[in-house]
Amino acid sequence: MFRHCTIAELLEVRGGEGSAAARAHLKGCAACRDELDRVHQRVAALRALPSVTPPRDRWPLVRDEFRAWRRRRLRWLAGGSVAAAAVLALVIAWPGNGSPAPVGPSPELRALVERSQVLESALGWYGGGGRVVDGLAATAIADLEDRIAVIDAGIAGVQTGEVPTGDLERLWRQRVRLLDVLVQTHVQRTAYVGF
Amino acid sequence: MEISLSVTAVDELAIRRAKSGDLAALERIYRAYQGTVYSLARRICRTAEEAEDVLQETFLEVCRSIRGFRGGGPGSLTAWIKRIAASKALIRIRYEKYREAEPLAEDGGPAGRRDGDVGLQMDLEASLARLSDTARAVVWMHDVEGYTHEEIAELMGKTVSFSKSQLSRAHARLRDMLGEEV
């Protein structure tokens, strides 16, 4: 190669991909070796630039947006996915793989799912948007909704195999208990505002 | 060394708890990675405000998606979070490009040389800021973050050749702006 290496060729050599001609040229050309050194130095200088810290704490905004997203998900769950979860419960309770017929969920699991649906309906009535909520109640409600979202993640985990099927009944029981407390919280708040 | 092991153990525990939606664990991950994410975003985005938005969008995505994270520990968590951040930052610069109708041309001329390490850093920072958004993103992701051209091409929705040519262009511009001898 009778000409000097281009930057593209030097970068390829640096990345271990350079052509044989470029590598051969580098061996005999001090100017191109100097240029390659400068590329190395430039990269080292870029890597040595100090890290920068965010000027403001964005965690409160992230946390609030995440909580709002979970609440929206919870409302969406109330609007239909509980039914899907009930179907899931039926499927899971079926041994499958050549078994003669689906046996359905245990009576207790079926009762828990039904109870959950009733509570979700009640929540739709009491927990509607636009109502006045004091700070303490809002924190309690957000905390309960967060915990329900965690339970829902567990129930969904049964479907993906991450959570053992045997945990399903326990998760639904916890969900019903938390939903019950959530509805009670809304009922008390509404009664207080009415009073 | 002990500190490093301790941080690793805490992170693995935090990952498990964060996957279950634990807000305290998610906050812990935010605190541990906010500097990494903001630095990456700040180098790619044009302004500090955009980088802050990328920081926020990245961690919202982390909170929503960490349940699906399949990595084996803090190292892969770092790579996963950085990939989300890079993707958000690239979307941001692409959006800014469309919004302005025409991309900003690279500013010519030497950045002005200063003496000493701090001066070199300032020159480099100023020169980086004067590159086009795309060239700046490619040089940072390739030379500092260690992404391959294939990965950059995938993240940008471009070809490998595009990534390589942007890197060459960035180096040529940096060399000129820093007033290095040719």
Structural account:
The complex is a heterodimer of chains A (195) and B (182). Chain A is built from seven helices and no strands. Chain A starts with 6 loop residues before the first helix and ends with a helix. The mean pLDDT of chain A is 77. By secondary structure, chain A is mainly alpha-helical. Chain B has 182 residues and is mainly alpha-helical. In chain B, helix 3 packs across helix 4. Chain B is elongated. At the A-B interface, helix 1, helix 3, helix 4 and helix 6 of A face helix 2, helix 3, helix 5, helix 6 and helix 8 of B.
Q: How would you sum up this structure in a few lines?
A:
The complex is a heterodimer of chains A (195) and B (182). Chain A is an all-alpha fold. Chain A contains seven helices and no strands.
Features:
heterodimer; A: 195 residues; mainly alpha; 7 helices; elongated; B: mainly alpha; 8 helices; 75% helix; disordered N terminus
Structural class of chain B: mainly alpha
Tally of alpha and pi helices of chain B: 8
In angstroms, what is the radius of gyration of chain A? 31 Å
Q: Unreliable segments of chain B (pLDDT under 50, ≥5 consecutive)?
A: 1-10, 101-105, 107-113
Major sheet size, sense and barrel closure of chain A: none
Which percent band covers the strand fraction of chain B? under 5%
Question: What Rg of chain B is obtained from the alpha carbons, in whole angstroms?
Answer: 18 Å
* Main interface: chain pair and counts: A-B, 37 and 45 residues
**Euclidean distance between termini CA atoms of chain B:** 43 Å
Average pLDDT of chain B works out at: 82
